[in-house]
Amino acid sequence: MLYILSGTVEVVFHDHSVQVGKGDCIHFPGYLQHRLRRVGRAKAVALLVLSNA
């Protein structure tokens, strides 16, 4: 799970991407190939929660 505290982040998957901004949350299986990138010049801060359950 990725919760955005400030700024905007783009989560890029193999076949699509999703932009999430302050207050947004995205969750997906960690085994999916992905990468994150900041969108714009503003600092982005995110809380990343990992679980093995």
UniProtKB/TrEMBL annotation:
Domain of life: Bacteria
InterPro entries named in the record: Cupin_2, RmlC-like_jellyroll, RmlC_Cupin_sf
Residue stretches making up the Cupin type-2 domain: 2-49
One Pfam assignment: Cupin_2
Protein name: Cupin domain-containing protein
Taxonomic lineage from the root: Bacteria, Pseudomonadati, Pseudomonadota, Betaproteobacteria, Burkholderiales
